[in-house]
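User: Watch each token:
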Amino acid sequence: MVARFEVVEPGPAEADVDSPEPEALVRRRAEAKAREVSRRPGSLVIGADTAVVCRGELMGKPRDRDDALRMLRSLSRHPQRVLTGMCVIAPDGRRKIKCASARTKLREMGEEELAALADRPGILDKAGGFELQADDPDVAWLEGSESAVMGLALEELREMLCEFYPLKGGSDGPLRV
């Protein structure tokens, strides 16, 4: 089976969602995004939302470059939890919702290095003002799902998809339906 993918911007669905618990917030935002896009008939929809919690502060997307610098300073000095909520809605309307998490810490950086990070393209669209790269030299350590930190927890997504579409021939191979 060959699957075609299309990225669809859900619009401001996440702005209408609030929750005092970070895990619940990212799950609810992911669900709101998926619901918004699922209005397209016959599609399997995956919605995701990521937030960072550092020293009790819930960090979403920075408002501007100064806010990104403030967040990056904190992430450079203190460990953080990265939470990614995901919602999968099947074509028949069934849905699965999960939250994946990881603990991470950026290496300590000076103002020039932080400014260079804050000036990266697209940084204002990233939770905590940081976008993890594969083998990222700016990360001191990471415990948990690396893909959750990148914004889509692939291990958990695979489990969710397998609940809708059980694997043929066992659960260790590639995802085939």
